[in-house]
Structure formats: structure tokens, C-alpha cells
């Protein structure tokens, strides 16, 4: 156990781990010391001087970000000297900061604005013109720089140097001519570049994708898990609380990393960050459809589910459970997988259940966060369906004519099958049901199309590759007439007269914990915002 010390901050006696910075220890007492250059995920440089506090027996103010706690230390954060220091730092920073606030995209989440209102509020004493620097410079595919707004905290420089290890950014020139820029001939184009916009405390580095799309005070936030790979980075989904389809084309405006020291620390990769566009993409499936006269035609939910249930019932009666097959997916939540197991496996006796599929070409682990497995729940699928089959074998079985009913969850089989061969194989199946969120060649080959919600529109859990069980919550409702997979399966069960089944995510998680040993130590509530380890997660927890 880590040794701790006892100290007093603003009259409150607290205990803090030995070696912790005073700035972090103050948070234990509920005291937030303003700061710019300090970031808990980066090397400490102690350069901005915004965080200075009084420490008894020290002759002058000390940087709380760079001073470790000590036994018996007495810290004061609100003495006249500390307050005057903050005001002076703000005045110094604002001397050359442009008055861009009305048009700056950082407004509402700018630490210069916020700290000025909390600790500044002085009248300007400068008549001189402000320094002119480069504005709206494209640094790379995702980030734009406004040098005039930069306060030279160097967080972005330390991030690219120490975390992304690409070192595209540096402080160029010296003294009052210092600016942040990319080194000559470079661009800010690394797999984690979007993080610098999160790190920048002001509007100097902004996200090209988000700029001028929505004022931040109109955004709502929901905790979620990135479905982009098996890391399962913790994220916040920021959605437009005032979404109106007449004026907006996107409900979800951005994804931000959510701190979880066990999984992703403070960061997410760009691939995951910008994958949010798929949530509101034009190819989302919004209404059920049935194959009629050679084409897919819009249908109601009772018609579509009635057709799927009728076809499945007919196959079960004529050929037994061996005539039907199901393709589950490692994109599904644990609860959806478990309900699919209960309905198709346990209730209807279907044994041909596949879920493994080839990784996309070029997928790789980068040693930081990105994993080659582009699914968020491969581990969960393998637990709920031990020994789950390979989708390629199931396609072969379809081509051989032994599958009469095939229920596909989300897979676009054309991604790793020759389109002609795939069409030929699926033609041998009497009824192909596609349940998924996006249109695809596979959806277009189906006889019944059931539009489903994506992760941002439902709740559930994924198990990441380390064995961390993590919850995600809905940010927005499913589009059009789409439903969650749990809703669809519950309705299909009732059309088959096979139910009733528990169909809430929390209820199904409780059943999982009762029936599947790996989940036995867990409860829905105890998962909390940061998740819990599976009972058998072992020692492979390191980020
Ligand atoms: Fe800091 Fe932003 Fe300037 Fe980088 S661009 S040094 S993060 S203020
Ligand atoms: Fe402590 Fe910058 S935050 S000196």
C-alpha cells in the first residue's frame, strides 16, 4: 500500500499519497487550483505560474503542480499574494490574447475565459496594439492552429513528444516571439492528433471537424465506450440537445476521451474519435423492409417480424433446429448476445451459431491504444458463446444448401467474400434476415431487413480484450423506426410465441451474472462509470 502523509490545505486536514503534487492533493479536499501547463497525463514543467500557492515556511509562492506533499505541510491557496499572482498571470496572458471570444470555438470551455471570470476581472491597462500572429493555420487532417490565442503552456508539444511520440510540434523562436508551430516540412498527422484539441486550454488548437458546428453549451453528454476496437476506450458522446432535422444533419457532434486509468488513461485514437460520423450517416437503416417482387420494400414492424418468425417456424417444423443458423457479432453487447443465446440457442435449440470473422486488411496493434481486433466485444462473445463458429464456415454451409433460415446480426459479409459467391450462397437460403444499423451489400441480399440501434442509442456492456466489463449509455434515440437489438429480439420471441424473456440490459446483465461464471462477481450497479474486471481477467490489465 502507498505511504501517505497528512497535510492541511486551506484549513482542511487531509491525507494524500506521498509524492502526490499539492495541486492533486487539493482536489481531495474539493479545492481546484487554477492551472494551465499542468496536465495529469503529461510531464510536469511548472512554466505557466498560474498554480502558485503559499506554503508555510517557504519564502515565496510555490508551484502546486510541481511541489510534492509532505508530512505536516500547511498550504494556503487563497491568500492575497496567491490571488494577486493569478490576476497578474492572467493580465500577462491576456495582454496579447485577441478578443476573439464571440467567434472562438472554445468559448464555453476556455480556461482563459473561465479563469478570467473567476480570478481576473481587472480593467485592461494596455493601450498598445496586440501582437499579430498566424491565424486559422491547417496543421493536419484534424487540427487547426490560431497562434494568437496560444498561451504557450506546451501541453501539445509534450503530448506529441511523449505520448504520440511523433514530435511534430515545437516552440519556435524565443522570448516574446515564441510561437507554437509544426516543424518545417511536417504536418500534425499522427494516429492520436485529435487529443491536442482536448488538451489545449484555450482556442489555439481546435478540431477542424467540430469547428462552428455547435456551441458547446448546447451539447449534452453521455458516458460510453468506443466500439472501434477491442481496447474499449472510455468516451463521452457529445450530442446536440437542440437537434432539429430541419436545421441540422448531425445529432452527435463529437466524441471525447473519458479518463480511465485501467483502459485508456486520458486519450483516444483519431480512428475512434472520428468514427462518430457513422452514427448519423445517410446509410443508416431506418425502416424495416421485406423482399417483394425482387426488391426490398418498406414494411411495418409486425409485417417484418411476422415474416421472419413465420419463416423460422416453418424451417424448424420441416427440418428441425439443424435447418437454421445464426451469425452473432462481436459488435453486439453482452446482453444482446445473451438474449440471442437464450432465444435461438436455449429456447429454439439452434446449434449452428457463428460469430468469428476475419480482421480487416491492414489492421494492427500500435502498442499504445489501437488494437488489431476492430470489435469491442470479442471477449464477451466468446464467453457467452464458448467455441462460437466461424462465419466463413457458415457461408460454405449456406452455399452447400444445408441452411434454410439465416439470421445475420450486423455483419457485412461482402467485406471478406467475393460478392458473386456471397450472393450465390445466400440464394440457397430460403429466408435471410439481416438485423443491423447500416445498409450494406449483405442487407441488400436479405429477405427481411430489421433496422437496429447503434451503441450511442442504447445501453449495455462490452468486455474489452483485457477482461474489463464496461457499461455504455444512450445519448440519442434510434433514428426513424429503428429499435435496439434487445427490443427486436424480444418482439421476435413474442412473434414466435417463444417468450417472454427479460429484455432490459440491466435485467439481462443480472441473469448473465447468475448463469455465466465469468460474470458471477459483478452487478449492473457496481460496474459504475469505469467498469470492473471479469472474475477470470487474470493479470493482463496493463494499459
Ligand atoms: Fe498550450 Fe494550446 Fe498553445 Fe499548445 S497551442 S501551447 S496546448 S495554449
Ligand atoms: Fe503549475 Fe503551470 S500549472 S506552473
Summarize the structure in words.
The chain has 543 residues and is α/β, with parallel strands linked by helices. The protein has helices at 22-28, 80-95, 111-120, 155-163, 195-199, 270-273, 301-319, 334-347, 378-384, 391-399, 419-427, 441-445, 485-495, 505-515, 524-527; strands at residues 4-9, 12-17, 52-55, 62-63, 74-76, 137-138, 143-145, 169-172, 179-182, 205-207, 219-225, 234-240, 252-257, 289-292, 295-298, 324-327, 352-356, 389-390, 405-409, 431-436, 448-451, 460-463, 468-472, 532-533. An eight-stranded mixed β-sheet has the order 15-14-21-20-19-16-17-18, sandwiched between helices. Strand 11 and strand 12 (234-240) form a beta hairpin. Helix 7 (301-319) packs across helix 13, helix 8 (334-347) packs parallel to helix 13 (485-495) and helix 8 crosses helix 14. The structure holds iron/sulfur cluster (SF4) and FE2/S2 (inorganic) cluster (FES). FE2/S2 (inorganic) cluster binds at residues 35-38, 46-51, 63, 65.
Topology overview:
Blueprint: E1 4-9, E2 12-17, H1 22-28, E3 52-55, E4 62-63, E5 74-76, H2 80-95, H3 111-120, E6 137-138, E7 143-145, H4 155-163, E8 169-172, E9 179-182, H5 195-199, E10 205-207, E11 219-225, E12 234-240, E13 252-257, H6 270-273, E14 289-292, E15 295-298, H7 301-319, E16 324-327, H8 334-347, E17 352-356, H9 378-384, E18 389-390, H10 391-399, E19 405-409, H11 419-427, E20 431-436, H12 441-445, E21 448-451, E22 460-463, E23 468-472, H13 485-495, H14 505-515, H15 524-527, E24 532-533
Parallel strand pairs: 1-5, 16-17, 16-19, 17-18, 19-20, 20-21
Antiparallel strand pairs: 1-2, 3-4, 3-5, 6-7, 7-10, 8-9, 11-12, 12-13, 14-15, 14-21, 22-23, 23-24
Helix pairs in contact: 2-3, 7-13, 8-13, 8-14, 10-11
Amino acid at each position: 500500500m502507498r505511504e501517505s502523509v497528512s497535510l492541511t490545505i486551506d484549513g482542511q486536514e487531509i491525507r494524500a499519497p506521498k509524492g502526490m503534487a499539492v495541486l492533486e492533493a487539493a482536489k481531495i479536499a474539493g479545492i481546484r487550483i487554477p492551472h494551465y501547463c499542468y496536465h495529469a497525463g503529461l510531464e510536469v514543467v511548472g512554466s505557466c505560474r498560474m498554480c502558485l500557492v503559499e506554503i508555510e515556511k517557504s519564502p515565496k509562492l510555490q508551484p502546486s503542480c510541481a511541489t510534492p506533499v509532505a508530512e505536516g505541510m500547511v498550504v494556503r491557496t487563497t491568500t492575497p499574494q496567491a490571488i494577486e499572482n493569478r490576476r497578474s498571470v492572467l493580465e500577462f496572458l491576456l495582454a496579447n490574447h485577441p478578443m476573439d471570444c464571440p467567434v472562438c470555438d472554445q468559448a464555453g470551455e476556455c480556461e482563459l475565459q473561465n479563469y478570467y471570470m473567476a480570478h481576473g476581472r481587472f480593467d485592461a491597462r494596455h493601450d498598445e496594439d496586440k501582437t499579430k500572429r498566424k491565424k486559422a493555420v491547417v496543421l493536419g487532417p484534424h487540427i487547426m492552429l490560431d497562434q494568437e490565442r496560444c498561451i504557450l503552456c506546451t501541453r501539445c508539444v509534450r503530448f506529441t513528444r511523449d505520448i504520440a511520440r511523433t514530435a511534430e510540434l515545437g516552440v519556435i523562436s524565443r522570448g516574446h516571439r515564441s510561437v507554437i508551430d509544426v516543424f518545417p516540412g511536417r504536418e500534425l498527422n499522427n494516429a492520436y492528433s485529435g487529443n491536442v484539441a482536448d488538451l489545449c486550454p484555450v482556442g489555439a488548437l481546435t478540431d477542424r471537424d467540430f469547428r462552428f458546428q455547435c456551441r458547446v453549451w448546447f451539447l449534452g453528454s453521455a458516458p460510453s465506450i468506443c466500439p472501434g476496437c477491442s481496447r474499449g476506450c472510455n468516451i463521452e458522446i457529445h450530442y446536440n440537445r437542440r437537434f432539429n432535422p430541419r436545421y441540422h444533419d448531425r445529432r452527435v457532434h463529437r466524441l471525447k476521451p473519458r479518463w480511465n486509468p485501467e483502459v485508456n488513461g486520458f486519450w483516444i485514437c483519431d480512428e475512434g474519435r472520428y468514427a462518430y460520423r457513422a452514427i448519423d450517416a445517410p446509410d443508416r437503416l431506418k425502416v424495416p423492409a421485406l423482399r417483394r417482387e425482387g426488391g426490398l420494400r418498406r414494411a411495418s414492424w409486425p409485417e417484418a417480424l411476422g415474416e421472419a418468425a413465420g419463416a423460422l417456424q416453418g424451417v424448424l417444423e420441416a427440418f428441425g433446429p439443424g435447418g437454421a443458423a445464426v451469425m452473432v457479432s462481436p459488435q453486439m453487447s453482452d446482453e444482446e448476445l445473451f438474449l440471442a443465446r437464450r432465444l435461438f440457442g436455449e429456447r429454439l435449440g439452434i446449434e449452428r451459431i457463428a460469430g468469428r470473422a476475419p480482421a480487416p486488411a491492414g489492421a494492427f496493434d500500435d502498442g499504445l491504444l489501437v488494437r488489431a481486433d476492430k470489435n469491442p466485444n470479442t471477449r464477451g462473445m466468446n464467453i457467452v458463446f464458448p467455441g462460437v463458429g466461424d462465419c466463413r464456415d457458415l457461408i460454405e454451409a449456406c452455399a452447400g444448401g444445408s441452411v434454410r433460415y439465416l439470421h445475420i446480426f450486423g455483419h457485412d459479409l461482402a467485406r471478406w467474400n467475393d460478392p458473386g459467391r456471397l450472393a450465390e450462397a445466400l440464394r440457397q437460403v430460403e429466408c435471410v434476415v439481416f438485423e443491423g444499423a447500416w445498409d450494406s451489400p449483405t442487407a441488400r441480399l436479405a429477405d427481411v431487413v430489421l433496422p437496429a440501434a447503434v451503441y450511442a442509442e442504447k445501453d449495455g456492456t462490452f468486455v474489452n480484450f483485457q477482461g474489463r466489463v464496461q457499461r455504455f449509455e444512450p445519448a440519442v434515440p434510434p433514428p426513424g423506426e429503428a429499435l435496439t437489438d434487445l427490443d427486436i429480439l424480444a418482439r421476435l420471441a413474442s412473434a414466435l410465441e417463444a417468450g417472454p424473456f427479460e429484455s432490459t440490459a440491466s435485467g439481462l446483465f443480472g441473469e448473465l451474472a447468475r448463469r455465466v461464471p465469468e460474470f458471477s462477481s459483478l452487478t449492473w450497479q457496481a460496474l459504475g462509470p469505469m467498469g470492473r474486471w471479469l472474475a477470470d481477467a487474470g493479470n493482463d490489465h496493463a494499459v
